[in-house]
Every structure is written in structure tokens, then in C-alpha cells.
Amino acid sequence: MVAARRRTGQPAGARCTGTQSARPGTARTPLGDPAVRAAWTALKATGVLAPAPLPAAAGLLWQVARHGTTLYALVAWHAQRTPARIALSSGQGTVTFAELQARADHVAACLRPYTPPGAVVALPAGDDLPFVAALLAGLRLGLRLVLLPPGQDEGATARLLARLNAQALLTDDPGLAGLGVPCLSLHRSPTERFWPGWPRAGQPVLLTSGTTGEPRPVTRRVKPLAAGRLTLALLAALLPHRDAPVLLPLPLWHGHGLATLALCLALGTRLHLCRGTPAAELWAVMARQSTQILVLVPTLLRRLMDAPGSAPSLRTVVCGSAPLDPALVRRTQTRLGPALHNLYGSTEAGLISLATPDDLCASPDSVGRPLPGVRVRRAADGQLQVRGLLTRQWLNTGDLGSLDGAGCLHLLGRADDLMVIGGENIWPAQLEAALLGLPGVRACAVFPVACADYGQRPAAFVELEPGVSAARLQAALAARLPRRLRPAPLTVVPELPLTPSGKVARTVLKARLDREELTGLRSEH
């Protein structure tokens, strides 16, 4: 794979970009650039332009000219070329590209009299297929669509919508009427036929996951050329094919899920949506769907590896949105072979880097090299800063990290999570890795708490395998860690709480620590 090639001779800590420079005194034409040739080869290998690449490309340009650079233009392109091809499937059924376009057009016709271009409109989480139709309609109308996850605090959501000057809420749920925004039904009858007029490109507004604080809105303003370049790089690394079914057990209102939807709509690939499916059932779902590509987060991957089952067709696993433990990397490689990719990004910055199977074999804690068009540098305080697809200015990721000699990124943890224990800098991720290395520990989360002796000490919540006692865990910790680094309190829970996007809900656990003055060992078993 192209993305698995290593650049050598780059010192650790140097700035790393997703581009390469020609040697001084040489000129390189676009078609002569190996990266361009590889990307073009990967694009043709997907089959998306078959059987006639030039007419297919011309058709795409026509749809973009009509509808703007939007996901709707991609759906219209495939609906014109292959109307009966399945676009999406879920427990609610399947929809072809022609049916998906018709649903989006119906919603657009309903909304157009009430939502002028540029209006801020909230789209709450709901059933996946209607959600996608409403998303496509809003983008076609040129709206700023605020994608609302479920379970948000009503007061915080109302304040957010007021701050964004939201003009409407697309929902049939009467329980959302108290947010102070007029509700528009997605099932009303259109009063007139919708004509597209001038092409308008709407923008999705995503909320940060709220893993470590209150969610913040982030508008996705994607530059078309940069997005195309990034897409080609992902194709060269993942080598997908339009006939390779993709399984997504993640929500579409999160950046990870939305990026997967965009890539599948671009390629015309069937995407099966199964948000909320227990990890133990995913093996059976993948077998039924003949899934070749699985996209998920580390928590789901760990639970999948804990469950028995197999999916003979599975060849690519893309994991992201949270730190991937090296022990889990090795478990996955042992069970699935060289299938795992680690994708690093954030809601604010977009996609940043991708670790290929070769990268993870060489260094399981790596998040790979920056993607094309993404520049990464290490600030004086150790934080990683990025500039690329979504931002022209240097953006602090909030992550501490470094670059190795091969140009790969390694994350140490969140800057605001750093613990100073007896004068020693310790990141929760280091202690979490130590805990996960103990027999019987399935998952954990570590936090700093105040301590009179050392200034700070770690506290931890852990999930244990059946039959593993808390006393046995304490004994293993005593043999492995010095006293100042042993978590106290150490709380054993049946399962760690998760956010709607599948990540550990650290704010919930931290609030519990603040609320309860725990001392010593505590168990909920």
C-alpha cells in the first residue's frame, strides 16, 4: 500500500506533512508524481468509474455544477448512473440511490418554504435512513445543519441553539418542543415542487463528543480540492472497492460516522448501518452482510475481540475516535491478521493521520503519518498542532505527542490530563496501559485526584473478566507498580459508561469521583 511506505532520515520531533517535495533542480509533473499515480490507480481500482471513466467523471462534474459540492451531488450522480444500486441498509430495510434521492427531494420540498439558504437548522438524532434523507435535503438547500446527538442536557441544548440562532428543528418528536425552536415535521406534504435553482452547498455543524466537557459546535467547511486529495489518500491506503460492503455500528452525527458515510456515497458502496447493535452480535451481522470493511471505535473493537465468532469476508478494520491500546492492537492482529488501521482525527481538525497494518506491526502505539494536505507540528509545550482540511490556521489538538524517525505520530495523552505525582509527569494513558496488561482487566479509565503525600495520585475505574476478583487485581498491581502509582480509589464496575459515539464517558466518571469521596477499594460486583 502506498500509505505504508516509510520516509527515512527525518529526525524525531521534526515537522511532518503529508506531502513530499521534489529534489532541488527537478520538476515533477502531476502525472509523474508517484503519489498521484498511486492515487489514480487506487481510484480506478475501486470500480467507481467503470466501465467508462471519462463519461462517469463528466457526469459527476455535471451533478456538482447543478447541486454544489455536497453529499447530495454524489447521490444524484449514482442515482443517474446506477439507480437500482443499494446505497444504505439497516434494520429498517434498504434504499437504492434512486430511492434515497427521491426521499431527500421530498424532504427538501417540505422544508424549502420555511428554511431560506444559510439558515441554521437543527437535526436531532433519529432513525438512520430518515436522518440521512434529511441531511441530504438540508445540504441541498444550503442550510447549516446542527447534528444533535441523543441524550443531551435539554438546558445546554437550548442555550446552544439560541447561541447559533437556530431557526427550526427538524423533528416529529413532541418531547423536543421545549427547546425554544419551531419544530418542522419531516413527514409533512410539500406545498410545491422543489426546483434546485443555483447550486448551494450546505454545511453540517457537528458537536464535539463531550467526552471531557460540554459539547461544542464545529462547522465543517471542507475545501473541495483538499477533500478530493484526502479521499484519494484514503483509497490508496484502505483499497476499498465499490462492491465491498461496509458496516458502521457508529452514529452518523459524529465525525467518524459522517466521514464513513461520505466515503461510501462517493464510491457508491453499500453501507449497512447498525448503530446500537451489541458487539457480541456484530460477528453474525457481518457474516450476513458479507462485510469486507468494518468501521468502529476502540471500545467496540475490544468487546468484539472478547466475543466468539467470525466473519470470513472481513479484510479491513478502521478504528478511531479514541486511543487504541497496543495490547488490543496485538489481539486484533493475532485474530484477524493484517487488517487493522488506526485513524486519528478530531471534530475540530478533521482527519489527521492514518496508521496502516504495517505501521501498527512496527509500532502498535502509532497513529501513523499525517494524511496528504495535513501539516502537523509539536508546540513548545508538547501539544500537537495541525493545519489542513478544515482549518487554515494552526489548531491545538489538545493532545500531547511526538514524531518518530519514520514520520509517524505517537500520542501521549490529553494535555489537561497530565498528572504530576511526586514530581514525576504521568499520563493516565500510561497507567491505563499498565492496567490493561494485567490478566483479567477488560477496560479501565484513570483520573488524577488530589493527594497530600504526592500532590496527586491516580484513581481508576476498571471492568474485570468474569471470575477475576478485586483482591487478585490489587495483588497484581502491587507486584507491578510502585505505591505512588497504584490507583486509589480503585473502583470495579460492570461496564464503563459510554457516550453516544461509543467512547468512554470520562465526564460521567469524573463527576462520580468528585461526588463521592471514595477511599480504598470499591466494587459494584
From TrEMBL:
CDD domains per record: AFD_class_I
InterPro entries: AMP-bd_C, AMP-bd_C_sf, AMP-binding_CS, AMP-dep_synth/lig_dom, ANL_N_sf
Domain of life: Bacteria
Domain AMP-binding enzyme C-terminal: 431-503
GO molecular function terms noted in the UniProt entry: medium-chain fatty acid-CoA ligase activity
GO BP field: fatty acid metabolic process
Region feature Disordered, mapped onto this chain: 1-31
Domain AMP-dependent synthetase/ligase: 76-377
Assigned protein family: Belongs to the ATP-dependent AMP-binding enzyme family.
PANTHER family registered for this protein in UniProt: ACYL-COA SYNTHETASE (PTHR43201), ACYL-COA SYNTHETASE FAMILY MEMBER 3 (PTHR43201:SF8)
The protein's name: AMP-binding protein
Taxonomic classification: Bacteria, Thermotogati, Deinococcota, Deinococci, Deinococcales
